[in-house]
Amino acid sequence: SQSRRRSDSAATPAAPGRWAKAGDVTLHSYQVGALPLINRILERMQLERLLREYLPPDDPRCEIPTSHAVLVLIRNLLMSREPLYGVAEWAASFAPDLFDLWTHRISMLHDDRLGRCLTRLFTVVGPEFILAVVRHVVVEFQVTLDELHNDSTTVSFYGKRKAAGWGVPPTPSPGAIAKHDARTSNNCFTL
Predict the structure, then answer these.
(1) Contact in structure between 34 and 83 (CB atoms under 8 Å)
(2) Is there a contact between 124 and 55 (Cβ–Cβ < 8 Å)?
């Protein structure tokens, strides 16, 4: 069961890499996978710098900086999508330097610590942070915006609305652009 796996993984720290022994010879190996490519993209995005800039300062007692933990979670999301309680075990199969962590810190990537890091991240993720990332990515990767597609959201209303009656679109909030299709009673809001 999930709770059993969770308690087992929390009790036993993830052993780094894989070990093979034949007589007096021991082979210690790690996975590499797509991490060098992903790391290069994250480096060019300067995501770690932007995270450090926008996140509140870490507590001095913090053993793994929040920015490092968030980057481990992003790599996990891109490569494996392991649940929080499985991230340490997943990360332990890779060379620790690919995560900018020492070997002994991989086992510190438990679900409680990662959850606290996500909480800290969600307190700062807002328009300023997102725009800082997008601005840098547009320049760094030379993204042309002349053919940018705006994927707006369509909100459908069904039935009779008390105050407006049939076919009258609701009033959008300030800063929104509204389009109304009287045939289907659909309203499209673009912020």
Answers:
(1) no
(2) yes
**Closest by CA position to 50, among listed 108, 121, 105:** 121
Phi/psi-derived region of residue 31, left when phi > 0, alpha when psi is between -120 and 50, beta in every other case: beta
pTM score, whole prediction: 0.68
Which of 121, 151, 146 lies closest to 54 in space, CA to CA? Answer: 121
pLDDT for 169 equals 57
Tokens representing 90 are 């997943």
Q: Chunked in runs of 10, what are the mean pLDDT values of the chain (191 residues)?
A: 45 69 89 95 97 92 92 96 93 90 86 93 89 94 82 61 56 50 47 44
